Amino acid sequence: MNVAALAGLSRPELEAFLARCCGARRWVEAMLAAAPFPDEAAVLSAAERAFATLTESDWLEAFAHHPRIGDVSRLRERFAASGELSEKEQGSAMATANEAVIERLFAQNQAYEARHGHIFIVCATGKSAAEMLALLEARIDLDPPQELANCAAEQKKITHLRLAAL
Predict the structure, then answer these.
(1) Residue in 66, 116, 118, 160 annotated catalytic
(2) Rounded Cα gap, residues 50 and 128, in angstroms
(3) What is the average pLDDT across 28-54?
(4) Mean pLDDT of 112-138
(5) Is it the case that residue 79 has pLDDT exceeding 50?
(6) Buried b (16+ CB within 10 A) or exposed e, 78-113
(7) What is the pTM of this model?
(8) DSSP letters of the chain?
(9) 132: exposed, middle or buried (C-beta count within 10 Å: 0-12, 13-18, 19+)?
(10) 66 is catalytic
């Protein structure tokens, strides 16, 4: 993480960068209020404090900024702001996945969304498409409050990776 680069951003640039890291408006506002950051530890600490303030609706807002796992064709068209990041996070896994796994991911995502009311969130970095499918299938029948907590934990991982990528 390049804290000096963060400090060099104008407020609108910082806001746009933070929104790409996590789409929850309340999280972005809390991070903006905590800026400027003296070091990486301060950024990560502020991120955790901001996460602690999020409500269910805030988490759902953050999740809505992600494409469905496996829906690579929509990454570029729907998620212009965070799609590049999502594409990097999912891209290699989807590029090497066989068609049956991708189709199963798409179908299971639809079933998951119908059950939980939001898309399946997983930190895709380092995971194959088959691993993501196995995680989706393991979590699809969890009770909604537990699954919301799982997704929130995955959102935190994703956000930390995106902050670190600066």
Answers:
(1) 66
(2) 30
(3) 97
(4) 95
(5) no
(6) ebeebbebbbebbebbbeebeeebbebbeebbeebe
(7) 0.84
(8) --HHHHHTS-HHHHHHHHHHH---HHHHHHHHHH-S-SSHHHHHHHHHHHHHT--HHHHHHHHTTSPPTT-HHHHHHH-HHHHHHHHHHHHHHHHHS-HHHHHHHHHHHHHHHHHHSS------TT--HHHHHHHHHHHTTS-HHHHHHHHHHHHHHHHHHHHHT-
(9) buried
(10) yes
- Residue ranges per structural domain of the chain: 3-54, 62-164
Instruction: Say if residue 43 is exposed, middle or buried (CB neighbours under 10 Å; 0-12, 13-18, 19+).
Output: buried
**Nearest-10 Cα torsion for 93, 73, 146, 137:** -60
For residue 93, give every residue at least 6 positions away whose Cβ sits within 8 Å of its Cβ, in sequence order, or none: 124, 127, 128, 129, 131, 132
Assign a CATH topology to domain 62-164.
UraD-like (1.10.3330)
Distance between CA atoms of residues 137 and 146, nearest Å:
15
pLDDT of the residue at 91: 46
Residue type, 23: G
* Owner of token pair 């299938």: 137
159 vs 1, more confident? 159
Residues 6+ apart with CB under 8 A from 42: 3, 34
Band of the pLDDT at 1, cuts 50, 70, 90? Answer: confident
